[in-house]
Amino acid sequence: MNRKVIFFLPLILLLGVCLLLLAGLHQDPKKIASALIDKPVPEFYQANLLDSRQTLSPKDFPKRPFLMNIWGSWCGYCRQEHPLLMELAQDIPIIGVDYRDKPQNGIEMLKRMGNPYALVIDDSRGELALKLGVDGAPETYLVDANGIIRYRHSGLLDRETWQNTFMPQLNQLLQP
Fold first, then answer.
1. From first to last of its 176 residues, what are the pLDDT tens digits of the chain?
2. Which string of DSSP letters, residue by residue, matches the chain?
3. How many other C-beta atoms are found inside a 10 Å radius of the C-beta of residue 101?
4. CA-CA distance, 94 to 62, in Å (whole number)?
5. How far is C-alpha 7 from the geometric centre of its chain's CA atoms?
6. Is the distance from CB of 78 to CB of 49 less than 8 angstroms?
7. Distance between CA atoms of 105 and 111, rounded to whole angstroms?
8. CA gap 161, 150 in Å, rounded
9. What residues have CB less than 8 Å from 141, skipping those under 6 apart?
10. Which residues are registered as beta bridge partners of 123?
């Protein structure tokens, strides 16, 4: 009896691993949970990309709901979502985090494509992104008026995601 169990044990383990992998295929990678949901944006003190003499921190955030967008000039999806961010910036403040980028390249991109950001944080070493748990760029966070992260979207922010996911949550934050 023990020999049969030992003989089939590797097969049972292999089937278990295959079932776990199969279950993972059915999950939406854009719906990545974040340990920071319902927690404040982590403390940081980093240079303003557009004026390296100025240090930015959460105290500089708007006192109303805003977006925090992780981007880089090297990121194709970031350039793709940029026109939408330019539109959204007319209605909601956006804090930009230039992630693992040469500062001059980020500045050049903003000069060329326009600047949708109320503030732009130079995160060329990825320190803030590490605290946020960023997987890569782009990522967009919805943050409430108290600096609490309410939602995280990993990947390209498109109009459909804005309308169907962000807007309902933003409307909830704006209700008295």
1. 567 667 766 666 666 665 655 654 554 444 445 678 999 999 999 999 999 999 999 999 999 999 999 999 999 999 999 999 999 999 999 999 999 999 999 999 999 999 999 999 999 999 999 999 999 999 999 999 999 999 999 999 999 999 999 999 999 998 87
2. -HHHHHHHHHHHHHHHHHHHHHHHHTS-TT----TTTTSBPPP--EEETTEEEEEE-GGGS-SS-EEEEEE-TT-HHHHHHHHHHHHHTTTS-EEEEEES--HHHHHHHHHHH----SEEEEETT-HHHHHHT--SS-EEEEE-TTSBEEEEEES---HHHIIIIIHHHHHHHH--
3. 23
4. 9
5. 47
6. no
7. 10
8. 15
9. 41, 67, 68, 69, 132, 149, 151, 152, 153
10. 99
Q: Do residues 176 and 158 touch, judged by C-beta distance below 8 A? A: no
Q: What is the pTM of this model?
A: 0.81
